[in-house]
Amino acid sequence: MENILKNKYIIKDFSHKNLHALGFCHNKITSDCDRKYYSMRFPVVKYNSSASIEGEITIDTTDGSIFLNVYDLKGNYYTPFYNYEYGNFDDILKMIYKNINKQLKNVK
């Protein structure tokens, strides 16, 4: 299974107005005086209608680069997303990829 982290994603219109219209918020934690980042979090896996694994799309407004991250309930990186070649997580990774791709289609 190919990991979607290997792909490079760019958003064409990364203006403040467009990013807010798409549901992104300014990310004060990763932004600094030279770079501004906007992020959106969304559930990629639900259990009993609550998010058990969250995806995050972050956009760098200097060039429109898109970065992807996946977190568990405690806010830690969801390791199988990054180290997909270890273990047997194909079913859950397919679900994660599907939901991330769905969000990316709305962004691009």
Unreliable runs: none
Report strand %: 25-35%
Strand order in the sheet with the most strands: 1-5-4-3-2
Number of helices: 3
Q: Whole-Å distance between the termini?
A: 23 Å
Please give a structural write-up.
By secondary structure, the protein is an alpha+beta fold. Helix content is 26%, strand content 31%. The protein has three helices and five strands; from the N terminus they run βαββββαα. The longest helix has 18 residues, at 90-107. The mean pLDDT is 89.
Structural key phrases:
alpha+beta, five-stranded antiparallel beta sheet, 5 strands
Topology of helices and strands:
Blueprint: E1 9-10, H1 16-21, E2 25-26, E3 37-47, E4 50-60, E5 65-71, H2 79-82, H3 90-107
Antiparallel strand pairs: 1-5, 2-3, 3-4, 4-5
Summarize the structure in short.
By secondary structure, the protein is of the alpha+beta class. Helix content is 26%, strand content 31%.
